[in-house]
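Sat 14:20. Reprocessing the chain from the morning session after the first attempt stalled halfway. Input below, unchanged.
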Amino acid sequence: MSVLNLAVRFLCEIAAIVALVWWGWPIYGILAAIGVVLVWWAFIGPKSRQRLPDPYRIVLELVIFALATAGLYEVGQTALAVVFGAAALVSALLVRVWPEPVA
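Finished this time. Tokens:
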């Protein structure tokens, strides 16, 4: 079950980047995506050297997922925003039950 959750989590991370690019295409979307990738790499990712401890890390994750959800809503994809938001929230919570491998 944890492998399935890690797959869903990875897809949510990619979908968040895509949603932000879609929302702000071209300039703001690309800048937002670069910002999210850098924040995730620096503070959230399992191989991050400065990985935040919980609860700070989950708050930052949820903020990123909420921004992506809002971006989907803003481009008129309400149903997709609801599905994405729910999947991202559940996955973020389940990763605390079944921790991801940390290098």
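Helices lie at 2-24, 27-44, 56-74, 78-97.
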